Task: structure prediction
Amino acid sequence: MRLHRLDITAFGPFGSTQTVDFDALSAAGLFLLHGPTGAGKTSVLDAVCYALYGSVPGARQSAQGTTLRSDHAAPGTRTQVTLDVTVAGRRLEITRQPPWERPKKRGTGTTVDKAQTWLREYDAPAGAWKDLSRSHQEIGEEITQLLGMSREQFCQVVLLPQGEFARFLRADAEARGKLLGRLFDTHRFAEVEKRLADRRRATETRVREGDAALLADAHRMQQAADGAMDLPDLTPGEPGLADAVLTGAAVARSTAREQLTVAHCGLTAAEAAHTAAERALEGVRELARLQSRFAEAQQRAARLAERADAHRAARERMERGRKAETVAPALALREAADTAHRRAAATEAHARALLPAGFADAGPAGLAAAARRAAEELGQLESARRAERRLTELAAERAEVDRQARADEDLLQEAETWLAGWETTRARLRSRIDSAQEAAGRADQLAVRGESARARLRAARTRDRLTGEAEQARRRALDSAERAVRARAHWLDLKEQRLNGIAAELAAGLTDGEPCAVCGATEHPAPARKIAGHVGREAEERALAAFQDAEERRAEDERRLGTVREALAAATAEAGDTPTDRLAGETAELERLLTRAREDASVLHAAQEELRTAEAERERRLAHLRQAEARAAARLTRRENLDRERAALRTEVTEARGAAAGVAERAAELELRAARLADAADAARAAEESAQRLKDADGRLAEAAFRAGFDTPQAASAALLDDAAHRDLQHRLDAWHAEEAAVRAVLAEAATVTAARQPAADVAAAEAAAHAAARRLREAASARDAAARRCAELDRLSARAATGVRRLAPLRAEYDRVARLAALAAGTSADNERRMRLESYVLAARLEQVAAAATARLQRMSSGRYTLVHSDDRAGRGRSGLGLHVVDAWTGRERDTATLSGGETFFASLALALGLADVVTDEAGGVRLDTLFIDEGFGSLDDQTLDEVLDVLDSLRERDRSVGIVSHVADLRRRVHAQLEVVKGRSGSAVRRRGVG
Result:
């Protein structure tokens, strides 16, 4: 990497544009960058770092990069850094502009312009610059890939900070490890340590969980064995737990099987005893049943003897009832005739009581003639009744006419009152319609404004969401770029390793007598052999494929980032810079106004309908007025006709009613008299006929009783049985005969008689013996079932424990292996004698390379006195690996670098910085660094040592390399002719070249 030109505008202390021509300064090989404190020497180096990486070292970089702008710059001047540099044989120009808060072109206030970056490449054949990219991400990835170093590595290798390396010499192993870890990117080895430790903990947790489950099964087996199993005195994770659990399980299973055999024998004996007891109980119960049956039959026979007289009386009563049944028809006929005669006599008496006194002794014929005369008189009053009904109708019609007249008067008054307020009502409704129409127009305008506001609000929300998505896409793109860089470096490493061992790969295809593809010889006396770790074509192709996949993912992530940024720009263009909350508030206010306007406009249709309804009501009321006037004229004629007809009918009705209150009352009197006379005539005839039928029934009854053997009809009636009494008496007789037959059958049974002669059966004793045998059988069965369940449960748990032990064996082996590896990588294993962590081991190798590279320059600076050596000795009880000692050739002793004096510390740290630059450069892929800067520390050297240091720095020019010294030392201005002076002033700093053309 060679710097050609640097242009700085409004950057740091430089208020105007300053140009640094590195080509002119590098012509001398060694140049001095000096100036007073605070002038901006470090800012020149910051500008180089910012141009390459878009940020400056340390805390001088803010989150937005706004602190890079010079306070001396004019308000209209934008901060810009342009660097012309050659990297990996390519001439590039990088221009960066950080974010800039500038005055608005319209209105007051300020606005922030986004950061911008340009990358151009010089086309030598065409003699012109061509644009490559304007993307921050693409440019950053391109520069990082070409340099092969991160910003931190660049600041340590190209911008050599002597102060940090002096602290490095005096630091302990932990501090050195942090610095070397940043430079050589050894975090992957720390990740290996962490992964091993995490895997060890995870495996240990799984082993402990498996042991815990095994121990839980042991507890269950102990419970199943009723405490007959001893638990191992071990905790989960301890060796021997599985064997102890399996051994205890085997002993518990053997004991349980012995108990099961004993329980089987006990159950067999209990079943035999229970069967014998049940048979004995059945025999005793049968004897008791027969004895009880014989005793019960004797009791029933005694009861039959006691009821013999009652049985004879019932049999005689049944015989008399059968004789009385022949007289029953005559009795029923006489009772029916008597009932009918009494009913007819009562009806006749009631009918005669309603007649006038003159008809008390009249016969049926006289009563019928009087009824006919009353009916004839009633027919003569029909015409008068019609006239009276018509008078009632005329009164109702006259009242209806008067009611209609009153209703029309009320209607006329209401219509006149309503029409009097018509103009006021119409004006009010017109005003409501006009207000609603105005609100509708306002609602249309607000709807258009609301739609625009909602569109801006949606765009603002999209802008806020896409801002986060753009940041996520940017991080993903950066991650993809870093993975692509690492994949490319891995591929190039494998490719280089394969090329280094390509001779062995070609030698593998040699055949005796066949020409070599390289030299053509047919003899191959000493073909090359593959060494350990040889990289073949497949490994290189896999690495290349991985690199290509990473590149594709990087391109895809960059495409997604571009898409998100385009969408973000579109959303920002539509939404503007207005905050989302403010837009949401404006939109809500417009929605509120729109809602209110629509509510005001919503009454338009109702108001129009109400106006149309009011106009229709006005027409209706006017029509009612005209109709009411016409009806009043017609009613006058109708009232006169009704009055004339009513006078004529009143005369007719008065003549017909006589002394009665009315014609209807007179007609009702005649109707009642005719009906009562007719009823009395019918009742008299029915009473005469029923008396004759009763007399005939008495004669037939006396004859039937005599033939049946009864002295009087009353005796026959008393002997007659109804259906219920007959059924009851027959049931009692049948029950007597059935009971008598049953008792004789039981007393004749031989088995019953034999059982009665034996002693009384003891059922309670037999049942007690049977219950005791059943209880012993249940207890034996329960013991056998419990023993069987115990055996089955122990077998199941033992099988599960054995399965768990087999399943846990590979995991336990894996845990032992991982634990050994994790302890070895962490430096805690007994096999790791120096207690070096894996990352420390790798850094120790790097530090050893740095010490070797630094020694070559340190010996020259110290006239061969000092040599830097790496030490892996342990410091006290700490870990070893990152010790750094200096060997003094004058004394032959080795001592710690912290014991060096100030001047010795300077050139030792300078040699260490140069050595570290060489090693990091090789680590980065061998990128040549043609421009270096060394910062401060020269003031601590004497003249002779300063000359030796300058000779060493001057030797760096041997391969066309230039070195810039940043220092305040005045003696250097005399010794180094090419100078870049930084001068500070009230309007900002400026740069001046001295000693160059």
